[in-house]
Amino acid sequence: MRFMMMVKVAENSGPPPKQFMEAVAKLSEEATKAGTMVGNGMFGPTTLGARVRLSRGQVTVIDGPFTEAKEVVGGFAMFELKTKEEAIEATLRFMELHKKHWPGWEGETEIRQVLEPENSAPRA
Questions:
Q1: Which of 11, 71, 91, 121 is the most exposed place for a label (fewest CB within 10 A)?
Q2: CB–CB of 13/99 below 8 Å?
Q3: Chain-centre distance of CA 65, in angstroms?
Q4: Tens digit of pLDDT for each residue in 32-78?
Q5: pTM
Q6: What residue ranges in the chain does DSSP mark as E strands?
Q7: CATH superfamily membership of 2-117
Q8: What does the alpha-carbon distance between residue 115 and residue 6 come to, in Å, rounded to a whole number?
Q9: Domain spans of the chain?
Q10: Mean pLDDT in the chain?
Q11: How far apart are CA 9 and CA 17, in angstroms?
């Protein structure tokens, strides 16, 4: 099963510390070698982005920054794992790196199963 992990942070969390980035790179390399990580990345600030919205039959483009957002998705990782429990364990290891290498950082990582043709009906 594929799982997407989305890291949610305050827009102005500041740049990550070097030690944190090195620890994440090591964790990512290990997961890639193990064949569990499909891909990952960090996102730039919302000032560099845009939203395309469909509402009431109209498609509009809204340039960043998105001042109404209290938190934004700051990064993601996609994993191929056997169970939701494995996804939670992988996320706990990742969040422990934040705790250890980025004191004071606050945020959350949301885990979502990616629906594929064989599992396209959502399950509770």
A1: 121
A2: no
A3: 19
A4: 999 999 999 999 888 899 999 999 999 999 998 887 777 889 999 99
A5: 0.83
A6: 2-9, 37-42, 50-55, 58-63, 72-80, 107-113
A7: Dimeric alpha+beta barrel (3.30.70.1060)
A8: 16
A9: 2-117
A10: 91
A11: 15
